[in-house]
Amino acid sequence: MAQRLNPTPAPTPAPPRLRLRVTATAETLLRGGHPWLFASSVREQNRPGVAGELAVIYDRRDAFLAVGLYDPESPIRVRILHAGKPVTINETWWRDHLEATLQRRAGLFDDGTNGHRWINGESDGWAGLVLDRYAGTLVLKLYTAIWLPRLEEITRLIRARLDPEHVVLRFSRNLQALARQEYQLEDGAGAPAASPTVIFSETSLRFEAEVVRGQKTGFFLDQRENRRRVETFARGATVLNAFSFSGGFSLYAARGGAVSVTDLDISAHALDSAKRNFALNQTDSAVAACRHETIQTDAFLWLEQNTTRQFDLVILDPPSLAKRETERAGAIQAYATLAGDGLKALRPGGLLVAASCSAHVTPDEFFEVVRSAARRSGREFSELATTGQPADHPATFPEARYLKCIYLRVGH
Question: Which of 79, 263, 273, 340 sits between 20 and 30 A of 253, alpha carbons compared?
């Protein structure tokens, strides 16, 4: 009796390409280069989408507008990869996209610097993805689920182009459970087996980066240019570094010839890291000669209560005081108080360096807060400079412009 063969099931057809149409306002924003399409701006969609798939956006005339990565769970429904003329997003496109991003950093770093940012999220066309270098270790940090299905592909491209010793994966807190449960990936995966701390160089100073558990990707690389500027003002100065973290500003001031540096931080762990960073640089005679003092304290409270100690250089670089728009007004008031207390700790002729990393407080708002505090102090002052983000941390749209710093010299 002939055996009946089961017919081969027909292959499941691929779903149609995810197509979206958006509001007129969103069209204008996307044409202007904004990298986010919000869910409230989607007016038509041909089918449900899954995290990380390509979504093609069309304008009112059914012409191609942009393409990006779709996220059904986020208010930012699509994070744009490309806008303008149609392109094919394939392995060649990704490779060229990475190469263009790296080439924008060409010539930015001296021979004594092997710690910097290779990819800065949306402003480099990699929305929600950051890639930092610490010597032979790269730290890839993701802030959105759209990259999880593509992580193997992207990591392979990065390894092929940059040939790192290690690639450490870091996930924002909102992604850690998803990465673990759906992709079996732990925050910190790929770290060097010997130690979670990597030693790197910045302008020939040596620092440690806590690439597994440290803030951001392990170090605050974005303040490099301000640290270099502080070094030029430090000769012969007594320095107060409030919110000192691991002592980056302090070490530059020491190399610049500061007589003493006092670090204030609420974290004993951060102050211990600052001590280790100073120890790493004792072969530099200026660093070795500088007296380094650490005080574990609430820097806000210490500055408020300080009535006796004065310094030639005061650095105020607090953590973000407005992580959401509802905190903006309180942050502005806190910056005003902080600047006023910092000015009180300055000797005549001293220099105040005040920074903010709160994206919800604009540069103009922050600079005016510090200037107003200086006017209220009754002291004459001159403004030496205002700065923003360094070139390896570009900001191509308003929400990306988080870092700002102002330098004020008080009169004699």
Answer: 340
Q: What's the rounded Cα separation, in Å, for the pair 53 and 303?
A: 50
Choose among 251, 248, 260, 253: nearest CA to 293. 260
Q: Which CATH class is domain 91-199?
A: alpha beta
CA distances from 119 to 105, 193, 265 (A): 9, 25, 29
Class of 220-410 in CATH: alpha beta
Residue ranges, comma separated, of all CATH 2.30.130.10 domains in the chain are: 18-83
Question: Tens of pLDDT along 102-158?
Answer: 999 999 999 999 999 999 999 999 999 999 999 999 999 999 999 999 999 999 999
Q: Which CATH architecture does the domain made up of 18-83 adopt? A: Roll (2.30)
Separation CA 69–CA 97 (nearest Å): 15
Torsion angles phi and psi, residue 121, rounded to 5: 55, -140
Bridge partners of residue 124, in order along the sequence: none
Q: Contact 201/221 with Cβ under 8 angstroms?
A: no
DSSP 198-260: EEEEETTEEEEEETTTSSTTSS-GGGHHHHHHHHHH-TT-EEEEET-TTTHHHHHHHHTT-SE
Instruction: For the chain, give every residue range classified as CATH 3.30.750.80.
Output: 91-199
CA distance 311 to 410: 12
Residue-wise pLDDT tens digits, 7-23: 666 566 667 899 999 99
Question: What global pTM score does this model have?
Answer: 0.93
Q: At residue 163, what is the residue type?
A: D
User: CB 96: neighbour CB atoms within 10 A?
Assistant: 11
Contact, 49 vs 72, CB < 8 A? yes
Evaluate whether 409 touches 349 at the Cβ level (below 8 Å). Answer: yes
Give the start-end residues of each E strand in 84-216.
Answer: 115-120, 129-134, 137-142, 166-171, 197-202, 205-210
Taking a C-beta distance cutoff of 8 angstroms, is the pair 52, 145 a contact? yes
Compute the distance between CA of residue 68 and CA of residue 245 in angstroms, rounded to an integer: 37
* 348 SS3 class: strand
- 206/278 Cα distance (integer angstroms): 9
